[in-house]
Design goal:
Elements: H1 4-9, H2 15-30, E1 36-37, H3 49-61, H4 64-68, H5 77-91, E2 100-103, H6 105-117, E3 123-127, H7 134-139, E4 144-148, H8 159-165, E5 170-176, H9 188-205, E6 210-214, E7 237-242, E8 255-259, H10 266-280, H11 287-293, H12 304-319, E9 332-333, H13 342-350, E10 354-355, E11 357-358, E12 368-371, H14 376-393
Parallel strand pairs: 1-10, 3-4, 3-5, 5-6, 6-7
Antiparallel strand pairs: 2-8, 7-8, 9-12, 11-12
Helix pairs in contact: 6-10, 12-14
């Protein structure tokens, strides 16, 4: 007999994917260049040329078994050492290779981190707006996701609600900064206050409360924005990273968990992750990609186009009357819809070939997300559609 809970999940297909599929179908009718598809957060800039050249050189010169054979369960030792050294240099940490566990992207990192620090029946807190996949990420471990309502004035943390929800049942707090969907970066002040509250609650309850920091947009931070490294402020922390956005490599599925050396059982958590892999199937990420990213840890793709696109959209949308907190990073912007029903607004936008994601799926009502990882020329052409939508509908 098949498992009913997964069958039931078929009825909850991702709204983002549905909109992306609609945009693709519409593109076949009128040409995809005429569809202003802001649905899917798929990086739009090419990988660095250095990465491409490196891959070619490796394929030509290295032993095929080194490139294509299984890696060790924890990842290739030399890669883990290089990741640790890079983090130490950038953020003043004290990682060793033993604190790094290589994963299949940030999703694989979060899957391991959650299972390391929570048991079935525990609660995991996150903050709205949040990436909707956090629901299955957490709930399918047997833990329960609890969502703190958004502070829509700033999209920093709603600390009053957080303190009320941080009960003895909570095993972990899951944050995402820079944030999908709001584009907001948690400030140093925010991270310090979060750490202070969590430390106080740990002492009160007499058990660890881990901070799991989801950081795939770490490198996409705009000029002048305060972007702290959360693990530098809280000992019981696990940093979950992906190279998908920084290097424009989402299809290669490579990332890591970085275990804070000061956390409880820091020396064995990576080894625990290798055991967790036996049950999740997220084991032994591709050897060739591990070796390649280890040589370009201090490089990124040309991410400047995202700030350019953000500035264009922010200026135009606010001039049209949209309320919007200015993003500090990522390639997302999260304006307030001109009516309370964000899904209804999204449907009206389709008539102008504007594909936007209603905010309900992110745990907030009345907003919409634009993933502006598209060509700047297309962003500029979409402005006329926004103007026409607002003039004719609102």
């Amino acid at each position: 007999m098949i498992v009913q809970k997964y069958k039931d999940m078929l009825q909850g297909k991702s709204v983002i994917r549905q909109l992306s599929e609609f945009a693709t179908a519409r593109g076949k009718e009128i040409g995809y260049e005429n569809v202003f598809d802001y649905s899917l957060g798929n990086p739009s800039v090419p990988v660095p040329q250095e990465f491409t050249d490196l891959m070619i050189k490796m394929l030509q010169e290295k032993d095929p078994m080194e490139l294509h054979g299984y890696s060790q369960s924890l990842g290739i030792p030399s890669v883990r050492e290089k990741v640790a050294a890079s983090l130490n240099k950038r953020f003043g940490m004290n990682y060793t290779g033993n604190h790094i566990f290589m994963t299949t992207g940030a999703a694989g990192a979060i899957a391991h981190a959650l299972r390391c620090v929570s048991e079935p029946g525990d609660e995991v807190i996150t903050f709205a707006p949040y990436f909707p996949e956090y629901g299955p990420y957490v709930n399918l471990t047997g833990a329960k996701l609890k969502v703190v309502p958004a502070d829509t004035k700033s999209f920093q943390i709603n600390f009053e609600a957080f303190e009320e929800m941080l009960t003895e049942k909570v095993a972990a707090v899951l944050i995402n900064t820079p944030n999908n969907p709001s584009g907001i970066v948690y400030s140093t002040e925010t991270i310090k206050k979060l750490a202070q509250i969590m430390e106080e609650k740990q002492k009160k309850y007499g058990h660890d409360i881990f901070l799991i920091s989801d950081e795939p947009y770490r490198e996409i931070v705009f000029e002048g924005v305060d972007a702290p490294y959360p693990s530098a402020f809280y000992d019981n922390s696990l940093s979950c990273y992906s190279f998908s956005k920084s290097l424009s490599l989402p299809g290669e599925r490579i990332g890591y968990v970085a275990v804070n050396p000061k956390c409880t059982d820091a020396d064995i958590i990576s080894v625990m992750c290798s055991q967790i892999s036996r049950g999740t199937g997220h084991n032994c990420p591709p050897s060739i990609i591990q070796l390649a990213v280890a040589e370009v840890l201090d490089l990124t793709a040309d991410l400047s186009v995202y700030e350019t696109n953000m500035n264009i959209l922010y200026q135009e949308l606010t001039s049209l009357g949209f309320e919007c907190v200015r993003p500090g990073g990522t390639f997302y912007i999260f304006p307030k819809a001109p009516e309370a029903d964000a899904a209804a607004f999204s449907e009206k936008a389709k008539k102008y070939d504007l594909i936007v994601v209603p905010s309900d799926t992110f745990g907030v009502e009345g907003y919409f997300r634009l993933a502006y990882c598209i060509d700047t020329e297309k962003v500029e052409r979409s402005l006329g559609a926004f103007r026409k939508l607002m003039k004719e509908m609102y």
